User: What shape does this take?
Amino acid sequence: MDQMVARFHYDRHLDPMTDGEKDATTARKRREELEADGALAYKRLRGLDLPDFHARFRAFENPFPRFANFVLSEPTALPSFFVAEAFSRAFVPVMARRRPQSRSARDLRSSFYDYAHLGIGAAYCDVFTRDAFAAECLGDAPERVSRSRPIVFRDHDMDAFVGLSSARYSADLLKMPENVG
Assistant: This one.
């Protein structure tokens, strides 16, 4: 994480590109990555014995731009991709403003794990917990993929976490056959 902070910090301060140019470059690279991933998946599917797939899609010579357009315009197409992108768009500028090796940069060390956790949790789970900073970076992305916003625990609020865990445990006990009547 320290190397990433340094890279983004120095890129931000030494790179002659404007923020708009950086955004356009990032968007272009995302589209290229999606098209390449789509081409790879399409190639694998064409190699399988799937008559329905071949009958339906053999006429499409180059479906990859349409695939990229769909994923980029429809949050529920690939929910994990969408929430991870939303987090990254908010997180990278914060990281770039931190001085390498500073205390504030070290505070971001857990953010890689937040990123990995939210890519699944915020995209696919009905109940998802997150710290305040990660939840702020995530914004309304979970709602845009038809999920609830995360439950936020502030300042290591263990009492709230234990309360939530106890409520979940109690709800599970009520569902047990011996308690249903």
